């Protein structure tokens, strides 16, 4: 928190954008903390509210493009080979996931930008599936703009109580992580049963 505060004090709104870009790639501090803090700082008149929204959205896009690039570098063929070496996973699972993303990718990227944890991860399958980079950038920017604006305005409105945003949204991250863990356990158990039968 202290580092993010100093970054914004030193660089203004671009500092908030840099923090969000880094959070997308290396999430030590979630955007649920960074964005309300940017709104609070704007409320104190130390940075511009509009600039904070624009810079953090730009930071979101930059961070997402890094992970998109990782997915594109990995590619479908390489991912299929990796999948065949992982217990209970096959190349056909990768093909099914890719087919799902081809059908629902636009919505997944747009709405995924508003879901903790998924916000960062959704960029990788977009790159793997070869989603056109212009389309990916537009949907990422649109989803990030909605999310960033909501959280920055919340921090702006709450003032000294801006930390309430993270307190109430923290449970969402917990629920998402729990859901992912349950899905992985269910997948492994169902595969083991299928192999035994």
Automatic annotation (TrEMBL):
Keyword annotations: Cell membrane, Membrane, Transmembrane, Transmembrane helix
Compartment(s) where it occurs, according to its Swiss-Prot or TrEMBL record: Cell membrane
Main location: membrane
InterPro entries per record: DedA_domain, VTT_dom
Highest rank taxon of the organism: Bacteria
Membrane topology: Multi-pass membrane protein
Protein name (database record): DedA family protein
Domain VTT: 29-156
Membrane-spanning segments: 52-76, 136-156, 168-189
Protein family per UniProt: Belongs to the DedA family.
């Amino acid at each position: 928190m202290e580092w993010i505060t100093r970054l914004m004090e030193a660089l203004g709104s671009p500092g908030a954008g840099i923090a969000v870009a880094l959070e997308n790639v290396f999430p030590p501090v979630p955007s649920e903390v960074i964005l309300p803090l940017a709104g609070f700082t704007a409320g104190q008149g130390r940075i511009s509210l509009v600039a904070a929204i624009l810079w953090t959205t730009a930071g979101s896009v930059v961070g997402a493009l890094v992970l998109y690039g990782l997915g594109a570098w990995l590619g479908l063929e390489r991912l299929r080979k990796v999948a065949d070496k992982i217990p209970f996973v096959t190349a056909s699972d990768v093909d099914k996931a890719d087919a799902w993303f081809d059908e629902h990718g636009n919505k997944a990227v747009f709405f995924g930008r508003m879901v903790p944890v998924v916000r960062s991860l959704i960029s990788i399958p977009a790159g793997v599936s070869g989603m056109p980079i212009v389309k990916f950038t537009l949907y990422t920017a649109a989803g990030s703009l909605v999310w960033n604006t909501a959280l920055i305005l919340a921090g702006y409105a709450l003032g000294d109580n801006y930390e309430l945003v993270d307190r109430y949204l923290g449970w969402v991250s917990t629920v998402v992580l729990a859901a992912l863990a349950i899905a992985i356990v269910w997948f492994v158990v169902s595969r083991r049963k299928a192999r035994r039968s």
